[in-house]
Amino acid sequence: MNLFFWIKFSRALFAFGRWYTNENRVRLHIVILCLTGSFSGLAQSQNWVETAPGIWKFSVGKPEAYNLLTAAESKPNVEALTKLGKTGFPIAKNAISVRVEGGKTYLRLPLDRGEQIFGFGLNFQTVHQRGKILQLHMDHYGSKDNGRTHAPVPFYVSSKGYGVFVNSARYINVYAGTAVRQDSKNPPKVQDRNTDKTWEARPYSDAVEMLVPAEGVDLYVFGGPTPLDAVRRFNLFNGGGCLPPRWGLGFTQRVNRLYSADDVQKEAQEFEDKQYPLDFIGLEPGWQSKSYPCTFEWDKGRFPQPGLFVKTMLDKGIRINLWTNPYVSPEASIYPKIAPYTGSHTVWVGAVPDLTMPQAREIFWGKFASDHVDIGVSGYKIDEIDGYDFYLWPDVATFPSGLSAEQMRQTYGLLVQKQSADLFHQRNQRTYGLVRASNAGGSSLPYVIYNDYYSHEDFITALINSGFAGVLWTPEVRASKTSEEWLRRFQTVCFSPMAMINAWASSTKPWSFPEVAEQIKEIAQLRMKMMPYWYTEFAKYHFEGTPPFRAMNLEDGFQAAAKKEVLTASLEENPYAEAVGKEIKDQYMAGEYLLVAPLFTGQTSRKVILPKGKWYDFYTGHFAGDGEVITVTPGLDKIPVYVKDGGIIPMMPPLLHAPKPAQKVDLEIRHYGEKPAQSRLYDDDGETFNYEKGQYAWRTITVERQKNGQWKGSVSKPEKGKPDTIGKVTWRFMTSR
């Protein structure tokens, strides 16, 4: 090479050195990454698309065609999302980092100091998720809240008022404020363990990082401005919450697994004779000719005339719900037809239908339609689709559709919910049942999660977390060691999405402990009396996305008040500030107005944290407190419940069965506190999907104080042609005394 070349080359290097500033270095980095196929948040920061008001989507790499939303076939409720209004993008876009490398997707989102996060599925022991390392993996309940759970929903909510959702049907690894990067803009302080008493084994982390084992993913951000608004948007994005039939919110008894038709009818008659409410009965495995694996066919010895049996029960106002798992016995009549559309591995020696294939769906659900739904069966309990690893198909299994065993495991609960619910929707008939697995996309599906775990305290934590995950959970009652435990569990389940005794093994009944039988009857009747309130709250879940049962962290005036109190007073001077800063796992909101604070076996008193604003005792109307921590001793007969100032609770007579379509029901409307108020009452036929065609009514309830100081209430009239099932209305003003 000649001297002229080296002179030009030296000048070029000098010019490049002057150009290669920090800013241009980033530009060059972007060009290189785009050329090589690796991406960063900076490179794609302009690719966020607002898919609905307050919801933004970012497609990273090459997202897989099959995901949680496609499995659930969920469709956003755009009209309701529009009513929530617009809000700004809640995170600094340049702080979001993504890349695809080695067939995996890496996501990083920022966390501020003091920011708490909630969600990541149906956890049983923790509400605060910051500082957790999880693998979101469909499984039976976990003992350490490590991400393996019945609903490993890849959605989290920030205390700052936004949500993040990763739409992937893969096992996602989550580092929720645990990992510290060298290039962090907010690094933790370097400490010397030898001399610094404040040294921490887990240094401060300023990010949530997630690893998705796929070459791309759809990432969503949900705006607020409050955490509850972010949750609402998530639920509405998934179609809105389910709206059960009225009878689904009544009382259900699951009978012994080997009961016959005569046994079931005898037990139903006992409920009526003893005046305990009952809306549907669950038949356990013995209704089938064989189970584990299943034939899906009636046992001819125990149920010789299933059609007549179901009709007889319906005539009594009691519906039948059938237990099943989806694993097809080689002795089932549908086995030869469905075998080509099943997976490579069995579960309990039963074939696993590939329910993503139309052929499998037609054969499988066709059997359910002809043998069950067509004769009047009202719903299902779908068992054993969650785990453990040694129960379900292994990750090495293959399926004829080509989907991986991992994808099938993450979504099988969604598939069985959606496809079974469609059987009823096609008949314009609502259903409400039980399931052992769900995931994101399943908010609108009419199923409540349950399991074989039996910690009362952890059941309440799960109920609280269900509100972050877009699922429903029941703290069911089974056997109990004492009458106290029996009553305490029963009190809780009557303030949950499904009031149920599961007596498949124990044969227990509401009156199994005679010493508390009357208290049990009273709380069961209270469940029925409150049906107008519960039904309205589920309508808000459906039309507005508000979870009917949710954490205190989503209650306006709870966390905001905590932050204010911490800033203005020391913890020694203000126990309320200290209390709300802790993880609250034993009290929750039930609907718009009620705060429920259960007691557990052995407890005679407990502390209750009341958010800012006046609160009143549900039973007496007495003033309970205002933004403070109270200690209560309610006695065995009552579960502590408090109503916010201005709360309006519509109630009906304690019927033994839910009202029938068009049945007029008298109402007693209670108003609590000193605040004039307006509330809404939902009405439709209670059984069909005619509400989807506009056949529903929202009635406005108004309570105001007159000039003479007396309270007066009114209920607006329904629009012409709309449902009207309200009979005589009486008012009860639960003013503080």
UniProtKB/TrEMBL annotation:
Q: Which GO terms describe its molecular function?
A: carbohydrate binding; hydrolase activity, hydrolyzing O-glycosyl compounds
Q: Which family does it belong to?
A: Belongs to the glycosyl hydrolase 31 family.
| Alphabetical UniProt keywords | Glycosidase, Hydrolase
Record keyword Acetylation present: no
Q: Source organism's superkingdom?
A: Bacteria
* Domain named Glycoside hydrolase family 31 TIM barrel: residues: 243-536
> What is the protein named?
DUF5110 domain-containing protein
CDD domains per UniProt:
GH31_N, GH31_NET37
In the record, biological process GO terms are: carbohydrate metabolic process
Q: Where is the Glycoside hydrolase family 31 N-terminal domain?
A: 103-171
Looking at the keywords, is Hydrolase present? yes
* InterPro entries referenced in this protein's UniProt entry, alphabetically: DUF5110, Gal_mutarotase_sf_dom, GH, Glyco_hydro_31_C, Glyco_hydro_31_N_dom, Glyco_hydro_31_TIM, Glyco_hydro_b
Report the Pfam families cross-referenced here: DUF5110, Gal_mutarotas_2, Glyco_hydro_31_2nd, Glyco_hydro_31_3rd
* Location of the DUF5110 domain: 667-720
Q: Which residues form the Glycosyl hydrolase family 31 C-terminal domain?
A: 581-649
